[in-house]
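Record now logged for everyone:
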Amino acid sequence: MKTERRISAGGVIFRSYGTATEVALISVKGGKVWALPKGLTEEGENLARTAHREVKEETGLDGKILAKIGHINYFFMMKDEGTTRRFFKIVYFFLMEYTGGSVEDHDEEVEECRWFDIDEAIGLMKYDDEKEILKKGKRLIKELKGTAV
């Protein structure tokens, strides 16, 4: 079976209040999974632009990209018109500081978007690779802000 490659990008969007830091997560798969916003790159779009667009579409939030966090990769299978296809997906994540918008304005492919304390968000993450991205994001926020997170 041939493996197709897919490139996506997404983000960890955060806001800080004094010593508290919150991140926005999206709920998918019938509300059973909390995840980071992400999506496929479009023709002529670089990774940072994809991350910014996907975060805005899936969360309703706008943010300023501060740094690249890292990437994850995995294989998955999809049935399409009776044919099973295999994909290798690479997702690049960026750290974004919240600048505006509302979690109520997320798109229809997302069940819900909500702000969580960053430590609570880490505990809610279903997928270990995304959990590690969130932990790296927390360390980056601490470095960039020069304060405890």
